[in-house]
Amino acid sequence: MLSTNEELQRANEELLLAKQELESANQELASLNDELKSRNEQLDRVNDDLSNLVEGIPLPVVVLDRQLRLRHFSPQAQALFGLPDDSVGQPLAQLNSLFSAVDLERVVQSAVQGLADVEHEYQDSEGRWWLVNVRAYRTADDRIDGAVLAFQDIHQLKSALGTAQSAQLDAERANTAKDNFLALVSHELRAPLNVISSWAAVLMTASERGMPTDEQMSQRAVTTILRHCQLQAELIDDLLDVSRISSGRFSLDSKPVDFAAAVRTVVESHRPVAAKKDIMLATSGLQSQAVVSGDARRLQQVASNLIGNALKFTPQGGRVEVALTRLGALIELSVADNGIGVKPELLPRLFDRFMQSDTSRTRQYGGLGLGLSIVKHLVTAHGGTVTASSEGEGRGTRLTVRIPLLQTAATEEGTVAAAPAESARLDGLSVLLVDDDVPAQEPLAHLLRGLGAQVQIASGAKEALACLAAGSFDILVSDLAMPGADGHALLRDVRSREGGRRRIYALALTGLASIHDRDAAIAAGFDDHLPKPVDVKVLLEKLSLGRGR
User: Fold this and answer.
1) So what does this thing catalyse (predicted)?
2) What is d(CA 305, CA 266) in angstroms, rounded to the nearest whole number?
3) Do both 449 and 355 map to the same domain?
4) Are 250 and 377 in contact, with CB atoms under 8 Å apart?
């Protein structure tokens, strides 16, 4: 009995010990469960953070495993590549809809094997540009277990960069062209001066040394000097036109104009040049009236530029054809030649400012290369178009202008004015010349006196007012830019003193030749404005308006 009790006691003790061990194990298990639960919660948070991080990044992101199969992809990537929800485990070729899987695999292998990030620009199948960033997928124990691809849309950036680079190249070309142009301006302005200076030196030397000069040589010297003065004036006019166009201060004096008559006038003025080069200057369609709304002088400038260019670039014995053709509501002016032609790649830039089709030709034939850019602006301002065509070098050029016709009949006011007669006389006119540049006054005074005018000279506003107070004049011709009181101040003073007396005809003759300068002169009280160097025929026409006022 005692033995049985002892055995029971030992069994109870063992049971109690087992119970204690079980309780201890249960406590450890509970602790492990708590720790596992905590780690699961942490893992869930990490997964949530990772999921929100990937989905929150506004980039398509794709994660690949070691076999380059899809392990994970962001919603942006799913939308970009059109991936089904069950695409996990699918090969990289799933991205083939936009990108070449072969190219992507090469970039991925480069990143994985080189253990460094790789960036590459791709243009997808739709033409959009992407920056693809690839990096190796590293595990916690630093093993490489795939790759991560991020796709960034850089299409707008690429387009903006391309636009900026193109603009920079255009600016560099424009600056180079402008530098070349300025050098050319210097050359073209000096060339006529050299001729003028040389012939003036010949005449002066002959006069100083009493050398005999025949009338033919003197006439040739004077004619050459006048012609080269006109060349300089035309160059300066072109420069001023470009300045007005650039500043937006270019305007037209539009009236009904017989475009055919304007072109006829220009053709006749160019016949001596054509004859000198033995060029046949043929015309057609110039006899029928073609009335447009425009500035007669500017339309003549257009025709003169086109015909002058054709004659310049056509060799000895060539042919230039000038034709006017009605095309419904348009009138077309076509100037074609069989001259040097234009390279096809240069045709689109033929009307660009500061651009010349060939600088070597520009030096060979002369000129600034501004004429056609001015023509384009003038034609556009008249509501028309201008185009150029050529089959290539040595195969001639055709320039075509189209301008809307005016549907009403031409008025007398709108016709092109005839040139003043060369034999105009100024008998009986009294003229007061005002200019601080005395050497500029002397030849003009000599010319006017030779045509019968009575001329008095004043070197400034103060002297001019004294002359006006002492005598009566029909016409006042004054410079604008003078020291002290300028021409504007002089005219305002003159007008304020006239009161009810006869109003003197006032003409501004000045180097200030812009539209703004003309408007300012008229506002100050001048009746008209002429730029220097003055066309003598135009000056005589203006002076004749002062007769009998």
Assistant:
1) ATP + protein L-histidine = ADP + protein N-phospho-L-histidine
2) 10
3) no
4) yes
